[in-house]
Specification:
The protein is mainly alpha-helical. Strands 1-7 form a two-stranded antiparallel ribbon. Strands 2-12 form a two-stranded antiparallel ribbon. The radius of gyration is 27 Å and the shape is globular. Bound molecules: protoporphyrin IX containing FE (HEM).
Length: 934
């Protein structure tokens, strides 16, 4: 306060003085409390003086919009968002902008943890009511997570006694994901139900099972209502300037460079990033089993042939696990459901365990091939005689006829998760198989140099017995390599992919905080966060509050490695301190498990998470193919992605080689996640296995159908449930920062008109309450009129499919390749998948990873390397995927020398402070991609 006051007296211009005065008022008032009730949530909207303190007039003006306020604070955009003549200290405008944004994001996370956890496996009643005097959110063990009697490991984990996994089964990431949490053996393993992030009562709105749902949607919804293929054709289709050069996404015969399929491009994110996220989703979740949905066929064609849609399309229906009436319980005078009206299962492990490469059940594991000469390694074979140092590391073998597989996968590379295989999947599976083997080589080099030294590894059955390098078996080393590769992937995703997906300073800091802590050099933020938590929870004995406190404090040291050192007198949050005696012990289950926190709700991904990962618009139709050793600036071919579908990916990989594909996808921009930008080829994907009249399916339409089958609430209620502001009409989607009459704004207005035509309007009835997730600003209930006069004609904005809604969010924070709605889902779930995993927290130790493994993950490889210069003002390590690529495709060293983040188009000049400009770096001026329109 004193400092702010002094600054105010000495302050410069009038605007700065006004904003400092606002800061004083904010400081006087103190921090806002965390909401006690769902309906009082933060919503990412701050008071006027808070906005003025953190972003001046611009931030104040944007408060009336539905979108979160922090995006208008100082320094949260590119150079133009920096306050003039401001330093970067915490009390400067730029510092206030960044710290304010981080604070807003932390409030969101606290409230998401508090209001958005809904487990589907039977634990929800305990979460609400508590058990044996412990508040629900502080519960740590659930009977529903016990192994059943029929399970082969039932006796091993304790049978009908308290179940605690121990011995061999806790050493590594088990095939089916059992025993990650040693006290909840079943959690996160294959075939567990998907969770929800929304109240069970708002799922399956088309069933009209309660009054709120009926009030919200009338009888306007159905599986094919509004018509998904019409939505796809009219709202998702990419406009083509030269359709005869695109041919519905197939390009031209022979793939010449003058083929052309137009798409809207993100200048700061490359095609490698698109396939990265598909590669990740194959690890985290799948509804399909061995490439199949449920038996049977359902019609999914459009009602009448128009706008290019197909009435004859059919597909197999989604698997449903439970569909009977859910049990109910009463608490606090209110009736609750114990699960959603229907549930679905996650076929794969929910852990970040690279199950797409290593397997998630016996069937998938049989597809994984180990090297006959060294069982610690994956089998990689030489292919052809291409130039390039990485070539000798080899390529994945093909599936053999005797392998278990869906016939459509024949001829593909052998790997655990072979579905929807394209060149992108072939690329990442090969890269990480090479990385696995390189780690094994490095370990063996160390073992050869110091065979009698302590490898760090221990067997919990004999915890005191040192395992020397020479004694580590091939099977043990294979599993250690899996742990290492999985942690590397999690680190790439958290500190490299996500900060480029959300390319601005608050998210750079926030994501690095999730991994390695927020407060290195940011003591003021730490002090402020401590204050929020102490004010709100510090004196509370309520276990629920203590868990929220935990989430905030975890931002201090970072989630990764939480609890992997234990000091006699310190809390779990204590960072590593070489001066203290570490008493962490493999003999103590509470140490092995001590760093995890599920916040009272067993971990699995929610159905809503899958929805916001329906990112098909990222994929271009054609890949601009280049060669690394013959003028990389030249585009030699335009290869249709669909011509690399399934076994053709394998052929394309083998014919052209990993380095050329890396360069091609590294340089090309991916598709913006927005309306009118879905790949043509995915709207017309041939799936012969369906044996339908058309033999084709529209994947963009199917994205909507699957969400409807699985009961994802529609966009407006989805936002209210997640603690974001609702929209009152379709016009709210338009980005009002764009000049009226500008071509971008005109295009948005055109699409909004189509949205209105498709979803329609109705005369509203103010007597119909539509939600209990939020209330109006004046405390009244939100009704069918959404603030418009009773009886007036209002947009059916409540009916918009969630995928359509987030694609239509034209207004986004700077550098966001996704919308704020999608991001809100990530804040919660990206943190949880670290918080819940013992191998990323308290078991990130040499006893599991070996000394070589711990160092490899910590340093991004065998040694530590710093990046040149100070990208965006930070000193950074050479990023982890760049390091992986330099090892697995060393022939790209020269190209990668210019790259800071492997997901930023490789020939782009990154410019100053979070620039999104599409201009070539020195040496790439002749690259034709820079002559194309933005
Ligand atoms: C280029 C290649 C791609 C092809 C051919 C493809 C194809 C498909 C197909 C056929 C389905 C299954 C539909 C069903 O029966 O339910 C699907 C689902 C899905 N795809 Fe893609 N996709 C591609 C790229 C991507 C990318 C880049 C992402 C980004 C994350 C993605 C995310 C998803 C998700 C989240 C699902 C739902 C999975 C589930 O239900 O468990 N896909 N895709």
């Amino acid at each position: 306060m004193l400092l702010l006051g002094a600054l105010l007296v000495l302050g410069g211009c009038a605007t700065q003085q006004e904003s400092l005065a606002a800061c004083l008022r904010v400081a006087e008032r103190g921090l806002r409390p965390v909401a006690e009730e769902r309906a009082q949530r933060f919503l990412g909207k701050v008071r006027e003086d808070t906005a003025r303190c953190r972003g001046g007039d611009r931030a104040v003006e944007a408060r009336s919009l539905p979108w979160v306020d922090w995006q208008n604070y100082w320094a949260t955009g590119d150079g133009s968002s920096l306050a003039p003549r401001s330093g970067s200290g915490h009390l400067s405008p730029n510092g206030r902008g960044i710290d304010g944004a981080l604070l807003d994001l932390e409030y969101q996370r606290i409230e998401l943890i508090k209001f958005n956890l809904f487990d589907s496996s039977g634990t929800f009643a305990d979460y609400v009511r508590g058990r044996d005097g412990v508040g629900g959110p502080a519960l740590k063990v659930w009977p529903e997570m016990r192994l059943p009697k029929s399970h082969p490991l039932y006796e091993a984990v304790g049978g009908d006694q308290t179940q605690v996994c121990g011995g061999e089964i806790i050493r590594f990431r088990g095939l089916t994901g059992l025993c990650n949490d040693i006290k909840n053996p079943l959690m996160g393993s294959s075939h567990q139900p998907f969770a929800r992030n929304v109240q069970f009562e708002v799922t399956f709105p088309d069933l009209g099972r309660n009054e709120l749902a009926r009030n919200r949607h009338g009888d306007r919804l159905g599986l094919l209502k509004p018509d998904p293929q019409v939505i796809s054709r009219r709202l998702f289709t990419r406009a083509q300037a030269q359709p005869d050069r695109c041919h519905e996404g197939h390009g031209l015969p022979g793939a010449p460079a003058d083929a052309a399929c137009d798409y809207k491009k993100a200048p700061f994110f490359n095609v490698l990033a698109a396939f990265w996220i598909q590669f990740m989703t194959h690890d985290w979740f799948s509804h399909l089993q061995e490439g199949h949905n449920a038996p049977g066929m359902m019609a999914v064609g459009c009602a009448t042939e128009s706008v290019g849609c197909r009435p004859g399309d059919r597909i197999d229906p989604a698997f449903i696990a439970e569909s009977g009436d859910p049990a109910r319980f009463t608490y606090g005078g209110k009736e609750h459901l114990t699960r959603a009206y229907k549930t679905t299962q996650n076929t794969v492990t929910a852990w970040w365990d690279t199950s797409q490469l290593y397997g998630y059940d016996e069937t998938s594991r049989r597809r994984v091939k180990r090297a006959p000469g060294d069982a610690a390694k994956l089998l990689l074979l030489p292919v052809g005689q291409r130039a390039g140092m990485g070539e000798r590391q080899g390529y994945l073998p093909l599936l053999e006829p005797s392998d278990p597989m869906n016939p459509q996968w024949a001829g593909q590379e052998a790997t655990a998760f072979p579905d929807n295989w394209t060149i992108g999947m072939s690329f990442y599976h090969t890269v990480f198989a090479r990385e696995h083997n390189l780690f094994v080589d490095s370990f063996r080099t160390q073992a050869a140099a110091t065979p009698g030294a302590d490898s760090g590894l221990r067997n919990p059955l004999r915890p005191d017995q040192v395992i020397r390098y020479r004694d580590v078996t091939a099977d043990e080393l294979f599993e250690v390599a899996r742990l290492v590769v999985s942690a590397e992937i999690a680190k790439i995703h958290t500190t490299e992919w996500t900060p480029q997906l959300l390319y601005d300073e608050p998210l750079f800091l926030g994501m690095n905080a999730n991994w390695s802590g927020l407060f290195r050099g940011r003591e003021l933020v730490q002090a402020v966060l401590e204050k929020i938590t102490v004010n709100n929870f510090g004196r509370s004995t309520d276990a629920k509050k203590a868990t929220q406190w935990y989430s905030v404090f975890a931002s201090g040291p970072g989630i990764f490695g939480l609890g992997n050192h234990v000091y006699a007198d310190d809390a779990i949050f204590a960072g590593y301190d070489p001066m203290k005696t570490d008493i962490w012990s493999l003999k103590n289950p509470d140490h092995i498990n001590g760093g995890i926190n599920h916040f009272g709700s067993p971990f699995n991904f929610p159905e809503e998470f899958v929805t916001v990962y329906r990112l098909h618009a990222l994929v271009p139709d054609l890949i601009e193919y280049r060669q690394w050793d013959a003028e990389p600036n030249q585009v030699r071919n335009k290869i249709a992605v669909v011509d690399t579908f399934r076994s053709r990916a394998t052929q394309a990989m083998r014919e052209r080689g990993l380095a050329n594909w890396a360069l091609s996808m590294g340089r090309q921009r991916l598709g913006l996640l927005t309306l009118a930008n879905h790949p043509k080829f995915l709207q017309n994907l041939e799936l012969p296995r369906l044996a339908s009249a058309t033999g084709k399916i529209d994947i963009a339409a199917l994205d909507l159908i699957r969400d409807r089958e699985r009961g994802v609430p529609r966009f407006n209620e989805f936002r209210r449930q997640y603690g974001l502001r609702q929209l009152a009409s379709f016009d709210d989607f338009v980005d009002t920062r764009l000049a009226k009459g500008s071509p971008e704004r005109a295009e948005q207005e055109r699409l909004i008109a189509v949205l209105r035509e498709i979803y329609g309007q109705h005369r509203c009835d103010a007597a119909k309450v539509i939600t209990e997730a939020q209330v109006n600003a004046d405390g009244t209930k939100i009704n069918d009129c959404l603030g418009h006069p009773d009886g007036s004609l209002v947009d059916n904005v409540e009916d918009v499919d969630t995928v359509v809604g987030w694609l239509a969010e034209f207004a986004r924070p700077h550098g966001f390749a996704i919308s704020e709605t999608q991001f809100q889902v990530f804040i919660l779930n990206a943190s949880r998948r670290l918080f819940s995993d013992r191998f990323f927290t308290s078991s990130f130790r040499p006893e599991f990873y070996t000394h070589v493994g711990v160092a490899w993950v910590t340093q991004n490889g065998p040694d530590k390397k710093m990046e040149k210069g100070r990208p965006n003002g930070h000193e950074v390590e050479v990023s982890p995927l760049k390091r992986v690529l330099l090892r697995t495709i060393p022939e790209l060293a020269q190209e990668l020398d210019h790259v800071v983040n492997a997901f930023d188009p490789w020939a782009r000049d990154r410019g100053e402070y979070y620039s999104l400009k599409w201009t070539p770096r020195p040496g790439a001026e002749s690259d034709p991609a820079f002559r194309e329109p933005k």
